[in-house]
């Protein structure tokens, strides 16, 4: 597939990707498997299973894999970038509008309705996650201990994730035989180059003495590594850090950010861009807001490309 055709296809997918990951994955199934013979059904399902094991938005990573499968790294960059770009542009406009007009009575009244809707959305998402993820007794016990660790003992979210992951690795009983050597050599270059690109704006902020931008970049970089289960799973951790620990935004602003992110195309994790941009605007106007929003986007989504470009050969090996 040539570049203009890829831009049209994945630009269309990016603009229509409302409704969260389930709807986005269904859209890609229709566009990439059913309507066009670009991916086989087994390839699509293997890629989806792999993406669901990674930190970050699985639908965006699935789009990146599809682009890679069609046209290599160039295709992956086009597909993943266009999946994010429409929503990112909308979020940028909404964040500036919110910062400028959010104190008006009419706007505040509108956001009261958004807050109520967000509560229902989050509860519904939690119930769906419970049904899918807690099918075994030991999983329910781990979930209970994780809840107590976070809300009773106030343990750090990344620590809880690491402990749960270690238990999952220990408890795994499906030990299938390895059919051939893993193609690790194909993963080295994406990890090295991608890691350097990921760190570049952080180093620039450090050299420039931009402490706020550096703090934004470091926090959302860490968040990108622990975002298993999508934006819903890290909402409490992100709220605790940006509201309680750093004081970048208030709790009502956090709820509004989540509500607005629900209304835009693209991955729900774009809520991080809204939070970063709003925090930057509060620090010193629209220029810090733009820089903080761009920093957040970069450190949130560059890792997604790294995971896919490093892991795509492994998907084909599965």
Question: What is the straight-line distance between the termini?
Answer: 25 Å
Overall, the morphology is globular
Number of domains: 2
Strand content: under 5%
Uncertain regions spanning at least 5 consecutive residues:
none
Helix-strand topology string:
HHHHHHHHHHHHH
Largest sheet: none
Mean pLDDT figure: 82
Total number of β-strand segments? Answer: 0
Write down the Rg: 20 Å
Give the helices and strands, then pairings.
Layout: H1 3-16, H2 20-34, H3 41-52, H4 58-101, H5 105-133, H6 137-151, H7 157-171, H8 185-208, H9 211-226, H10 231-245, H11 251-262, H12 271-284, H13 286-317
Structural write-up:
The chain is mainly alpha-helical and 318 residues long. It has two domains: 3-83, no CATH class; 92-102 and 183-317, no CATH class. 81% of the residues lie in helices and 0% in strands. The chain is built from 13 helices and no strands. α5 (105-133) packs across α11 (251-262), α8 (185-208) packs antiparallel against α9 and α11 packs across α12. It is globular.
Summarize this entry quickly:
The chain contains 13 helices and no strands.
Characteristic key phrases:
single chain; 318 residues; mainly alpha; 2 domains
